[in-house]
Amino acid sequence: MAKTQLTWYGQSAFKVVTPAAKTFLIDPWLTNPVFDKGKDELAALKDVDLILLTHGHGDHVGDAVEIGKKTGAKLVANYDLSAAVVSVLGYPGDQAGADTTGHIGGQLTLLDGEVRVCFVPAWHGSTVRKDENSSPVAAGMPTGLIICIRNGPTMYHTGDTGFFSDIARVSDHNNIDIMLVCIGDHFTMGPVRAAEAVKLVGPKTAIPMHYGTFPFLTGTPEEFGKELKKAGAKTELHVMKIGETTTV
Question: Most buried one in 17, 56, 108, 223, CB count within 10 A?
């Protein structure tokens, strides 16, 4: 049986290819400073079914509009974020309809049941900007994403978030196989709080993200691994290299 393929592009950007060969991207900032093949990867992308966004900041929306226009990918986001990305950034409106738009607590069934996405809380902010000279525009509440893949893993992408005790509740209705967890500190959880979050959620595997892209994102996988042990988390740490694809 085919398995799920997961690629990390750096920061919070991932590509997922499902067992049925459907492709979706999460927070697709491929042209980030630490992925030296970002422009080539962006040019090579052809078949993308969905683009999932956690919030509106530029390091998460990233190259979504360009990819959406090129591939016809549908935008999966909460209602306010979807509206802002369409109206402010120019994402094609006919690729951001009610079928792929939801909100916190709601679950979407997508690609004929191949993928289910549930929006869960994240403690952060969410604005979009047309360019560096434009004022920020409110883009609703930030979210994390619970992503269930048919014949594949259930993944929790935290988005950008600080620690909050109710993070433990995101696994009430799903056993989390893979937690894609921000560890960089400064704007999100650092290693200490990320480890505590992992302990509460209880995934089989934790993959750190959102670190090292800029000098002030100082959290490291090494620190995170130490803190996981201190916290007594019964979770395997899997550190991915930028551009790496792993089978899960």
Answer: 56
Residues in the chain, total:
248
Q: Which of 52, 97, 98 is nearest to 76 (CA)?
A: 52
Residues 48-64: b if buried by 16+ CB within 10 A, e if exposed: bbbbbbbbbbebbbbbb
- Annotate 53-120 with DSSP letters as a single string: -S--SHHHHTTHHHHHHHH-PEEEEEHHHHHHHHHTT---GGGS-GGGEE-BT-EEEEGGGTEEEEEE
Instruction: Note the CATH number of domain 5-247.
Output: 3.60.15.10
* CB 196 within 8 Å of CB 231: yes
Domain residue spans of the chain? 5-247
Contact (CB, 8 A) for 55 and 122 = yes
CA distance 76 to 28: 12
Distance CA 165, CA 124 (A): 15
Q: How far apart are CA 188 and CA 196, in angstroms?
A: 13
- Contact present, 25 and 53 (Cβ < 8 Å): no
> With contact defined as beta carbons under 8 Å apart, do 178 and 155 qualify?
yes
Question: The whole model's pTM is what?
Answer: 0.98
